[in-house]
Specification:
381 residues, five-stranded parallel beta sheet, two-stranded antiparallel sheet, 18 helices, 46% helix, disordered C terminus
Amino acid sequence: MRALIYTLIYLLVIQLVLGMVLPTGLVYHYRLDFNVVKNSPANDYDVVLEQVAREIRRERLSDYLVVLGDSVGYSGPGGPEQSIGYYLEQIGRDQGRPIRVFNLSMPAMQAGDIYTAFLKLGQHGISTKHVAVNIIYGGFVARKPDPPAATWLQNDLRRLDPEAYAYALPSLKANGRIKPETYADWFSRVVSPRVALLRYRDFLWAALARHIPGLGSDEVADTRPWFEKPTLPQLLQAREYQRLFDDTPFVMDETNPQVYFIDRLIERARADGSHLTFFLTPANAELMQANVNKPGYAANLRRLDQFFATRPVRFINLEGRISTRLFADHLHLTPEGYRQMADLLWRDWLGNAAWLPPASAAARRPNIAVAAGRGDAVALP
């Protein structure tokens, strides 16, 4: 009986304190660990948000930047210390204008996921005052029927905004995202989030697996530039990649899920007093020249400029502004490419942000950007 009582007390203590004593770096280190979160996003994304919120409270942060987006915002391939959040913080330190960046992007996030993630920030006490969203050209291409309007967070979307979920439902059904709930699904949705050992098990296991040869996840992947990958051009002829550059005129109204959810996000941000910045990540114009040189592609880029010009948000178009030598493939960058993207965001926006502390005269460094339409780096004043 005494052993049972001690066991129950032990389990109760774990239940109450595990989340508070779990090192933040185990769950979040300049970004979430996609190889962990992708297996149970409904639970694990919330765990990441909880840990980020704890870090914000612990450090008593009031102004910070939240980044939402897909694999480019996430900064893959490459490790967490090769991501745009890391580089932005590094630039801020060098410039004497320290900034905290919480990168909550996740590969394959669609507009419905990004909108849902924005709603979840407030639930966890994470400020939405300053939010940057990465978008890609391919997100506006017509869905036939793929990709779905949401990849990871559709269950949260149903709970947080039933009207938006009803809009996304046909797309989710067409992509096989709506399936009968199994007992395992119910257990993961209802029981696991309420039991600490189950709630944090994916992160605890990942921490253990890192010390076991052959089991640890590999977040870095292949960071070589595209021109060192001889099979890549042939691979990119597949439909799933070609559709990302479709030059059919974009439909820029709410029948396009990308437009619908961006407008929904802007509407919610306005109600919350948030300042939104969208940045369009560029295509590899050298590798994909047959696609991006089409008149229809250029016309669609102009449609995006016009669309955001009519919205109360900041829009930074990075098309053609990063050296093609710094791409890992058609869209993703090498670590140095992500550093250059961070430099451009700093130059175009954060370097003059009024909410950051004034620059220290003793801590200045030249921003490095790329002249539009060229592949050579230049120092900017």
